[in-house]
Design a protein that fits this description.
It is built from 20 helices and no strands. By secondary structure, the protein is mainly α. The longest helix has 34 residues, at 277-310.
């Protein structure tokens, strides 16, 4: 064992992770290696094995995390069965005649998907496959088309039932149900702002999002359109009620509500005659893959934090942040900058499981509402998902987009920049008016 100061250990553990991530190694291997090596150096083999094993084991047996595979299975069934795709078609028929109408439809559809899927890759993939080609082939600017897809798809990790909220809440000692309620207003405000932005830009410059020509319009009577819209809304509304309705009415807590959502997704697929043995098999395999990935990284990060905190590094981070000039708002600004920068290089799972246990005591010491601060971190990660070099949403869109559309990485990055600015604006508004986040959870608790 080697005697090192807490400051040096902090630099070695945090710097080691950031440096090794740059090499391209999987983040799970990186975090596990740093934790194991530093644990051996500081505490020896027996103590290190005890810290790593006990924390990894307790994490994997944590009951709230049962919601991860359940929500994943629900989202995958909806994605593979295609029972919500008709809604996009109906919205497309209704708004394609307006400037920027297809991009606005994409954002609306992405918002509804977010309340059904809860998995960002599924949301971005579906929107790219369904919405990108109709926009580009009808003369939409590639940047605004791809930017709308990425921004709307990224809402899937914020609007409930979000896997990120399910993972975040236990780490911060918060209720998953409260996190769900707190996420509604920010999610809808972001969605509404995206729509306003697209509408204004396309109104000022019709070439960015031209309306569909009169020859291409599908002319249907008003009541026929309304009936098609109501029919297409049944699947998403059923899923939303099965999950969020059971939580908000007190019928079931979030974990059991996830099971209700999975059951509702399967029943809807059967009712709409979309359920096959092949879909069931592929959904089960994909759920196993995603859940294993999430829980493996979660357990390893939790073990890493055990070594980090046992070495006194948490105290070093807390003292450093509290010493930042500018009072508690200066310290909170530093926290948000750290989260944003980490989001550019590390998977969101690693950020949540490493940073949240370390920074939660700091946020409490600063006197901020932990629920409000937690939502600020989650909204901040919306920017990280769209900011290279990590930019999960950007690369999912690029990888899924049909090659014949000619949508480049530069087009996508150019398109998401205004949406990132919108998120930054709302972070400022939520700092000035924190009740925008907290009013609904407080209302539901009365």
């Amino acid at each position: 064992m080697i005697e090192l100061s807490e400051q040096v250990i902090t630099v070695l553990m945090l710097g080691g992770v950031l440096t090794l991530v740059m090499t391209g190694f999987p983040i799970a291997f990186v975090i596990a290696s740093v934790a194991l090596i530093m644990g051996f150096v500081l505490f020896g083999g027996e103590v290190t094995y005890h810290i790593l094993y006990s924390r990894l084991y307790s994490m994997l047996l944590s009951y709230p995390f049962l919601a991860v595979p359940l929500f994943t299975f629900m989202g995958v069934i909806l994605q593979m069965s295609g029972i919500v795709e008709e809604l996009y078609t109906v919205l497309y028929e209704s708004m394609s005649g307006f400037r920027g109408g297809l991009a606005i439809v994409t954002i609306i559809f992405g918002t509804i998907l977010a309340a059904c899927l809860g998995v960002i890759t599924a949301s971005v993939t579906m929107l790219t496959l369904i919405a990108l080609a109709p926009m580009v082939t009808r003369g939409y600017d590639k940047s605004i088309a791809s930017g709308s897809v990425v921004a709307a798809g990224t809402l899937g990790i914020l609007i409930p039932p979000s896997i990120m909220l399910v993972v975040y809440a236990p780490q911060a000692g918060l209720s998953i149900g409260q996190m769900f309620m707190a996420a509604f207003t920010p999610g809808l405000l972001l969605s509404g702002s995206y729509i306003v932005y697209v509408g204004i830009r396309c109104f000022l410059n019709p070439k960015l999002g031209p309306p569909v020509s009169e020859e291409q319009k599908l002319r249907l009577p008003f009541w026929s359109k309304m009936m098609k819209l109501l029919k297409s809304l049944i699947p998403p509304l059923a899923i939303i009620f099965a999950v969020l309705g059971t939580i908000f009415t007190g019928i079931a807590p979030p974990t059991e509500a996830a099971a209700m959502g999975s059951l509702a997704a399967v029943l809807l697929a059967i009712i709409y005659r979309k359920m096959t043995w092949d879909i069931a098999k592929r959904a089960a395999v994909e759920t196993l893959r995603v859940s294993s990935f999430v829980l493996l990284i979660a357990g390893i990060c939790y073990a890493y934090v055990g070594v980090f905190m046992s070495a006194g590094c948490g105290r070093v981070v807390k003292e450093a942040i509290l010493a930042v000039p500018g009072g508690r708002w200066g310290s909170f600004f530093v926290v948000m900058v750290i989260v944003f920068l980490l989001g550019m290089f590390i998977e969101w799972i690693g950020i949540v499981f490493i940073i949240v246990p370390i920074l939660s005591p700091v946020i409490v010491a600063l006197g901020f509402d932990p629920l409000w601060a937690g939502m600020m971190v989650c909204i901040n990660l919306q920017m990280a998902f769209q900011t290279p070099p990590m930019a999960m949403s950007v690369f999912v869109c690029q990888g899924t987009a049909p090659p014949e559309l000619g949508v480049t990485l530069n087009d996508i990055i150019k398109g998401v920049i205004p949406f990132i600015a919108i998120i930054a604006f709302w972070l400022l508004m939520f700092s000035i008016y924190p009740q925008l986040i907290t009013w609904l959870p407080n209302l539901m608790m009365k």
